[in-house]
C-alpha cells in the first residue's frame, strides 16, 4: 500500500483537548512552525538599514519581535473550539485573540507552549527515525532490505 501525503495541506495541525477527562473542555488545533514559514515571518519582521561609520558600511537589522510573535502564533494556532469568556460567550479564533491570550493568559500560553514542544520533539524523533530507515534501506523507505540485492552489489 502506498503512503499518502497531502500536497494541498502538508501541515494541517493536530487537535488537543484542553482537558482529556472532560469532553466539553474545548480543544485547539496546533501546527509546528516549519522552517520555510519561520524564514518567511523573519523576513517580514526584520527591517535592514545601512549605517556608515569611519568609512565602513554596517548592515543593521531591526527586529519587530511583536510582529514576529503575532505571525508565529497566528500560524501555529490554526483553530480552536469550545473556548468561552467570563460571560460564556464563544471566543473567536482570530489573530488578535490568539495574541491576547498568548501574552496575557498564563494557563493558555503554557498549554500551547507545552503542546508545541511536545509536537516539535515528536516531529524531530520521527524525522530522525525516517532518516535512519532511509539510510538503511528499510521497508519503510520503499526499498526493502534484500540479501539478494546486497550480494548483487559485490
Could you give the topology of this structure?
Elements: E1 14-17, E2 27-30, H1 35-45, E3 46-53, E4 56-63, H2 65-76, E5 77-81, H3 95-104, H4 106-136, H5 147-152
Antiparallel strand pairs: 1-2, 2-5, 3-4
Helix pairs in contact: 1-2, 2-3, 3-4
In a few lines, what is going on in this structure?
With 154 residues, this protein is an alpha+beta fold. It has helices spanning 35-45, 65-76, 95-104, 106-136, 147-152, and strands at 14-17, 27-30, 46-53, 56-63, 77-81.
Average pLDDT works out at 84
User: How many beta-strand segments?
Assistant: 5
Q: What order do the SSEs take from the amino end to the carboxyl end, as H and E?
A: EEHEEHEHHH
Strand content: 15-25%
What spatial form do the alpha-carbon principal axes imply?
A: flat
What is the gyration radius calculated from CA atoms? 22 Å
The proportion of residues forming helix, as a percent range, comes to 40-55%
Could you list the spans in which at least 5 consecutive residues all have pLDDT below 50? 140-154
Largest sheet: 3 strands, antiparallel
Number of helices: 5
Structural class: alpha+beta
Terminal residue distance: 31 Å
Order of strands, widest sheet: 1-2-5
Total tally of structural domains: 1
Amino acid at each position: 500500500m502506498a503512503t499518502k501525503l497531502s500536497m494541498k495541506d502538508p501541515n494541517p495541525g493536530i487537535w488537543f483537548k484542553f482537558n482529556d477527562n472532560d469532553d466539553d473542555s474545548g480543544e485547539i488545533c496546533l501546527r509546528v512552525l516549519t522552517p520555510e514559514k519561520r524564514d518567511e515571518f523573519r523576513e517580514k519582521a526584520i527591517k535592514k538599514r545601512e549605517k556608515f561609520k569611519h568609512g565602513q558600511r554596517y548592515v543593521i537589522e531591526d527586529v519587530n519581535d511583536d510582529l514576529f510573535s503575532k505571525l508565529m502564533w497566528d500560524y501555529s494556532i490554526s483553530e480552536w473550539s469550545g473556548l468561552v469568556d467570563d460571560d460564556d460567550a464563544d471566543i473567536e479564533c482570530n489573530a488578535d485573540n490568539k495574541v491576547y491570550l498568548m501574552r496575557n493568559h498564563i494557563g493558555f500560553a503554557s498549554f500551547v507552549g507545552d503542546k508545541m514542544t511536545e509536537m516539535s520533539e515528536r516531529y524531530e524523533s520521527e524525522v530522525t527515525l525516517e532518516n535512519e530507515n532511509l539510510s538503511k534501506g528499510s521497508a519503510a523507505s520503499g526499498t526493502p532490505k534484500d540479501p539478494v540485492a546486497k550480494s548483487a552489489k559485490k
